[in-house]
Amino acid sequence: MSDHLRDQINAALKTALKEQQKTRLSTLRLISAAIKDREIAGRADNGDKGVDDGDILEILAKMIKQRRESAQTYEEAGRLELSQQELDEIDVISEFMPKQLSDEDVAQACQAIVTELGAGSLKDMGRTMAALKAKYAGQMDFGKAGRIIKELLG
Predict the structure, then answer these.
(1) Pairwise CA distance, residues 40 & 49, whole Å
(2) Architecture of domain 4-94
(3) Domain 103-153 maps to which CATH number in 3.40.462.20, 1.10.10.410, 1.20.1260.10, 3.30.70.940?
(4) Domain segments of the chain as ranges
(5) What is the 3-state secondary structure (H, E, C) of the chain?
(6) pTM, rounded to two decimals
(7) What pLDDT, on a 0 to 100 scale, did the predictor assign at position 3?
(8) Backbone torsions φ then ψ of 121, nearest 5 degrees
(9) How far apart are CA 142 and CA 136, in angstroms?
(10) Which of 31, 44, 67, 142 could lock onto 86 through a cystine, CB 3.0 to 4.6 A?
């Protein structure tokens, strides 16, 4: 099991602590807590699997999505300082994510997976999405990818 991402996050946490970067420090602590929560849940579910880089990318993507939704809600409510705080946290979390694919690249990746698997109907949706998530963890919005796959298979 690779702890590459976990090591990067821990190193960033130590640096943020030394340099007293409050927002960065609190965001990194949230990431660490989310990883520990996933580990604990994993132990309860299936023995001692641990959390790998793929799991961490999943956690980070979920954290970014939550913050985008919160930032939009705050902005609509006129609470711009809270919205900005969410956006600042997204910046910190995004540092640990791989480069995001463009919409065009996402569409091409979806088409390639459908072709590769020989998927022909909506019954193949689950395994197609599973293959996409395995190959492109953290690199795309899987909600968008799901809509593209539906169009291709529908």
Answers:
(1) 10
(2) Orthogonal Bundle (1.10)
(3) 1.10.10.410
(4) 4-94, 103-153
(5) CCCHHHHHHHHHHHHHHHCCCHHHHHHHHHHHHHHHHHHHHHHHHHCCCCCCHHHHHHHHHHHHHHHHHHHHHHHHCCCHHHHHHHHHHHHHHHCCCCCCCCHHHHHHHHHHHHHHHCCCCHHHHHHHHHHHHHHCCCCCCHHHHHHHHHHHHC
(6) 0.73
(7) 64
(8) -145, 175
(9) 9
(10) 67
The token pair at 80 is 């711009």
Per-residue confidence (pLDDT) for residue 48, from 0 to 100: 58
- The pLDDT assigned to 1 comes to 36
CB within 8 Å of 42: residues ≥ 6 apart: 48, 49, 50, 51, 55
Of the chain, the end-to-end C-alpha distance in Å amounts to 38
